[in-house]
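Subject: for your reference before the review

Hello V.,

The reviewers asked for a structural picture of the protein, and I figured it would be easier to keep everything in one thread rather than splitting it across files. Below is the amino acid sequence we used in the manuscript, unchanged from the supplementary table.
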Amino acid sequence: MQFLTLVFYVFSSILVLASLRVITARNPVHSALSLVLAFFTAAGLWLLLEAEFLAITLVLVYIGAVMVLFLFVVMMLDINLVELRKGFWNYLPAGLLVGGLMILEMVMVLGRNDLGLAEPAPLAADYSNTKALGRLLYTAYVYPFELAAVLLLVAMIAAIALTHRKRGDKKRIDPGEQVKVKRADRIFMVNIKSQKPEAPKEDEE
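And here is what came back from the structure prediction:
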């Protein structure tokens, strides 16, 4: 078995295990760390396939957005941040494990010359990975690409509709209605006649 094949199987195993951990972990912190590991491992696989553009895009976009996803989960689940900070040292082993696997993957991909990996066939000087990817997407895979775009658009519209839906048990402020309000709608003048208090009656002897 070639070393390149061994690296592929190692990365694939880590990717599958990390993906399973994302959906099986009860703690959102562990799920977010597993998601980071899954994205990073997928980027390593794309580097092995010489798809540098996809790998860099995955690292910059998806791994960079994981923290936003984590904050979204915290806000939706109303997690007590004080309790999470108290258990910081409990998450340290999981964080060190994920970081160690990332470093190992970087060494295995970037240090291929030192590890005895076979070099791929040389490409032309004017070869562009991004250009080749775009040409392949808009020629051979144009219909799946358009279908994926429509699915993402539908998902985005559904998310917006769910966010702006009106619920009967929630009170909302309408600035337009507030501007239309007149004084007579807020203040009601009541004319009360003044009354003279009665003198206290003296006790009869």
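For the response letter, the relevant points are probably these. The mean pLDDT is 76. The CA atoms of residues 82 and 136 lie 49 Å apart.

Happy to draft the paragraph if you're swamped.

O.
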